[in-house]
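=== RUN LOG ===
request id: a7f3
mode: sequence -> structure
chains: 1
length: 237
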Amino acid sequence: MKKYLAEMIGTMVLVLMGCGAAVSLGCDNTLPSTVVGTAMAFGLSVVAMAYTIGGISGCHINPAITLGVYLSGRMSGKDAVNYIIFQIIGGLIGAAILYLLVISAGGDLANSALGANNLQNVNGESVSVLGGLLAEIVFTAVFVLVVLGATSKTNGATNNFAGLAIGLALVLVHLACIRYTGTSVNPARSIGPALFAQLSEGHATALSNLWIFIVGPFAGGALSALIWKVITPAKAK
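=== RESULT ===
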């Protein structure tokens, strides 16, 4: 049970800090400084949690990672299901805390949207559903592949730096993907903010497009597991 609670706490911190930075900075894909700041917040959250709960649960704090790890044969189906359930709960708690903070500070929820993922406007036009889905699949696959590689036996003693490598990979993914979807690559990160963003009439599409940020990351996680099985020696999974 402790490892499930660790996943819940870790995901809560990720959503609170990452989405909280997006809100505080007013993240906008036309303002590079806000994109960089938000990307750093998500990456640093992962690094911090990796060295906090990594020894307890492995610090997945992401259902897409859990799926990739499960499909790679590194965990049981029971653990995978419970990890995902508690990750989603943690994401909801993080979003709820952020919502309360924004409201208590007199913040404008209509402008912040609590960092909810959605199809972004690029050059005056909204990214298509197919484009957003493709971005989430590709960038999640890259991210989860880094996780599988960084935590694999193939890296031996360098696994002590896995948390740092994974956090930096998440920064990189955000820098490249925020322009298109605001970057999810993590269903648990997207569900909570989308639900609370519904409390603002200006963000009704956050919930209607939520499926993109569930299907895309899960598909990307599965793809990364397939790629890893192809490229890694069987004894080094």
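=== NOTES ===
The longest helix spans residues 77-104.
The chain has ten helices and two strands.
=== END ===
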